[in-house]
Amino acid sequence: MAGRLTRRWSPSLLQVLRFPVVQLHMSRTAMRASEKDFENARNQLKLLTKDPGNEVKLKLYALYKQATEGPCNTPKPSMLDFINKAKWDAWNALGSLPKETARQNYVDLVSSLSPSSESSSQVKPAAANEKQPGSENIIVTSQDGITKIMFNRPSKKNAITTSMYKEIIHALKAASTDNSAITVFTGNGDYYSSGNDLTNFTDVSPNSIEETAKNASILLREFVDAFIDFPKPLVAVINGPAVGIVVTLLGLFDAVYASDKATFHTPFSELGQSPEGCASYTFPKIMGPAKAAEMLIFGKKLTAGEACAQGLVTEVFPESTFQKEVWTRLKTYAKLPTNSLRISKELIRSNEKEKLHAVNAEECTVLQGRWLSEECMNALMNFMSRKSKL
Ligand SMILES: CCCCCC/C=C/C(=O)SCCNC(=O)CCNC(=O)[C@H](O)C(C)(C)COP(=O)(O)OP(=O)(O)OC[C@H]1O[C@@H](n2cnc3c(N)ncnc32)[C@H](O)[C@@H]1OP(=O)(O)O
């Protein structure tokens, strides 16, 4: 089948994609591709000198169709019509991925194929054991069908800086179209992550506080949207304590494996803030409103065992065997048929997507107001003065 695809690709898909020859001028940092970025990406494909291979071509085809026509809307070709069946399968596997996301993924994928791409923000389809470029605070690798995104700032308990949010968005977009079957988040060192880097808000001049809060709210919304829309199974390997946003996001993960030394803490009230990551919706659904309130309103810290009993964590492992057991299991899962994994996830999650986007938007608006509140500013000052007394 691969041979047939190679022979037939050029005329059939070039027709579908209709490339004119135009030079690309696109912003690689734009997180939502405009129509123009999309058009430019289509043009850029024409300039490729190297055949990207059938798998990538099928992804491009599927993303193009999804971006322009929406979910697959044609009858399934017969089993013997190999090429059209492969194209149909690729398109159909995108399920109800929003057109806008498909457009962005298409732009990212084309961008990753360009020889002239800037290495610092380039997104590449993951190859075996390939380390993705970017800062060292987020390490993205791909091996055995698993793309691993690791928080790598152990001296700061893996606190997430503004640039790390952006890199994670980029890494998720790349992982959504790479060759891996599943995507896994984990932390390097003794913490999974201590959540938002509180200095994101302290290095700000007084006359730009409002603008900083607005920008942070936009970034947060985009960050959480990337998790809501992520099409492949998303797994968290919680190697140690988790605080704030990395906990709230767990409601958007498909499996959460924790070491028995992990803890789960969302001290939003203490910080003069409010929940994000869609937790105001997912946590009451997962654990019931009373337990969700204890965590999200009163900031009760849970042990891994408690988080598992409440349904936030899938399974807890003894620290001594945690890494070995979890990665062995994940490697087995990653060998399952990729399209089937995506489609099952889509079935489980798609009904909720619209609601989750609305919850995310609302939480970000509320948080933007909280960041400007006296309660929040006092909490940040307390954190900074605690540091200065050490
Ligand atoms: C685009 C913006 C989006 C915003 C989204 C909204 C997100 C909200 C949240 O995530 S709320 C949660 C925020 N996190 C916290 O409140 C945790 C703050 N940190 C701590 O309470 C403690 O550091 C600790 C309990 C995590 C660990 O304590 P300890 O074991 O005593 O270690 P240290 O405190 O000495 O930490 C070592 C080193 O790391 C620095 N650090 C740790 N966490 C953070 C952090 N979240 N932000 C900034 N810096 C952090 C800590 O200051 C130490 O640095 P130093 O060695 O002093 O330079």
TrEMBL record:
Pathway: Lipid metabolism; fatty acid beta-oxidation. Keywords: Acetylation, Isomerase, Mitochondrion, Peroxisome, Phosphoprotein, Transit peptide. It is found in: Mitochondrion; Peroxisome matrix. The keyword Cytoplasm does not apply. Residues 113-136 are annotated as: Disordered. GO terms for cellular component: mitochondrion; peroxisomal matrix. Coiled coil: none annotated. Its EC number is 5.3.3.8. One of its GO terms (molecular function) is delta(3)-delta(2)-enoyl-CoA isomerase activity. Able to isomerize both 3-cis and 3-trans double bonds into the 2-trans form in a range of enoyl-CoA species. Has a preference for 3-trans substrates. This is Enoyl-CoA delta isomerase 2.
